[in-house]
Amino acid sequence: MKKDIETLLNKLKINYRLIEHVPVWKMEDALDLALDCELLKSLVFKDEKNQTFFLLVCKAEERVNVSALAKLVRTSRSKLKFASEEDLIALKTKAGLVSPLDFSNKYSIIISEQIKSLGNVGIHAGSNTETLILDVEDLVKCLVKQQKNLIWM
Fold it and tell me: Where do the YbaK/aminoacyl-tRNA synthetase-associated domain residues begin and end (predicted)?
């Protein structure tokens, strides 16, 4: 786990478990791990018109309505794309390693309303060999503490 994530969790007195596992690059593979939680995925989008980034946090199996997302962030559907590999490198991350608790990047965080009612959730902790498990309310608490532009979708 990244040190700044661990520091944040300890500072906020958040209870969590860190599960080590084989490297996982795709959500389908993570679902095979049979962890005792609801897995969340973190997807990075880029508004090509304004050159801004958005991180969407949603349930692993949730289908994303990109048109609704574009409307929410006030851009056109044609300008909102998944961040490219080059974009992710510029954000100092890569596909399969994006964590909603990694605040070294400058993007707005969008959270799916579907996660509100969940209990324990699993997220990336900045490594594809670890899953961080915590209560969804604690995840939101961390995001609110660190992010001033938190958007619910």
Answer: 38-141
Q: What angle do CA 147, 148, 149 make, to 5 degrees?
A: 95
CB 18 within 8 A of CB 11: no
Distance CA 109, CA 28 (A): 23
> 108 - beta bridge partners?
54
Model confidence, pTM? 0.89
For 20-71, the pLDDT digits (tens) are 988 887 777 777 787 889 999 999 999 998 889 999 999 999 999 999 999 9
Q: How many structural domains is the chain composed of?
A: 1
Give the CATH number of the domain where residue 105 resides. Answer: 3.90.960.10
